[in-house]
Amino acid sequence: MTGSADSPGTLVLAGTPIGDVADAPPRLAAELESADVVAAEDTRRLRRLTQALGVQVGGRVVSYFEGNETARTPELVEALVGGARVLLVTDAGMPSVSDPGYRLVAAAVERDIKVTAVPGPSAVLTALALSGLPVDRFCFEGFLPRKAGERLSRLKEVAEDRRTLVYFEAPHRIDDTLAAMAEAFGDERRAAVCRELTKTYEEVKRGSLAELAAWAADGVRGEITVVVEGAPEKSAAELGPEELVRRVLVREEAGERRKEAIAAVAAEAGLPKREVFDAVVAAKNAARSGPSEGKGLS
């Protein structure tokens, strides 16, 4: 090992190509050759990757996947405590991002072990860039639940989120997922289905959720990332008293005085300050006269 018990090792999270092996970061080859332990989601895919890169793994190779992640994490932590340099790679993209890694990182951090990364290709960022949708604010939602009811419920939770949303999905579920998205977000919400990114048959299909759901009904193959437009800003006419009060509360919790918060909310909604003020007073009076439920106006 490269270190000692008095000098803990380092955990290295390395991004791997999501398709084209030429996208491998230059540092990846050096880390594969020098690491004491290489923890791989699939050792066979690791072997194919090293052959394509023309490198030899210098240390011990162990499997580290969803099925053994909990059991193997303590073993890897002990190696790190003993001074080893442990390299973690997953099948494609960045470890921990809908891939094994989070448990090991959390355990290493708890033991005050250094964690670093070799940045690499990301399906999330690649899909965002290619989608043609706003990317100034986005939220990665990973994989949706497999059961239809749970999936729809999860989607409805973010139906009013104004950020662009990014999801991973399996090809055999993409038609049901797009139909559920159309139901939760509305048929006309824009989206992009990105499949086989950086591979030979890369395709980005853009359109409304209704259009994409109809397209996917015939079957879609490959690894898929879905990017969905955020909810549109509501017009002043659509903003009810509860939403106005909520916005005032958000600003107050951020440190603004109530008077300034009311003025700011009125300005962004295009409403008279008196209308927002009246909504706040009504909510305050209702809170005083009824049972208290969580944080509110006082």
Quick take:
By secondary structure, the protein is α/β, with parallel strands linked by helices. The protein has helices at 26-34, 43-53, 69-81, 102-110, 123-131, 148-157, 174-185, 209-216, 241-253, 258-269, 273-289; strands at residues 10-14, 37-40, 60-63, 85-89, 114-118, 138-143, 164-169, 190-195, 203-208, 224-228.
Written account of the structure:
This protein is of the alpha/beta class and 298 residues long. The chain contains 11 helices and 10 strands. The strands form 2 sheets. Strands 3-2-4-1-5 form a 5-stranded parallel sheet, sandwiched between helices. A 5-stranded mixed sheet has the order 6-7-10-8-9, with helices on both faces. Helix 6 links the parallel strand 6 and strand 7. Helix 3 packs parallel to helix 4, helix 7 packs antiparallel against helix 8 and helix 9 packs across helix 10.
Provide the structure class. Answer: alpha/beta
The total of helices stands at 11
| Average predicted confidence as pLDDT | 92
Distance between the termini: 61 Å
Shape: globular
**What is the strand content?**
15-25%
Protein name: Ribosomal RNA small subunit methyltransferase I
Organism: Streptomyces huasconensis
Subcellular location: Cytoplasm
Catalytic activity: cytidine(1402) in 16S rRNA + S-adenosyl-L-methionine = 2'-O-methylcytidine(1402) in 16S rRNA + S-adenosyl-L-homocysteine + H(+)
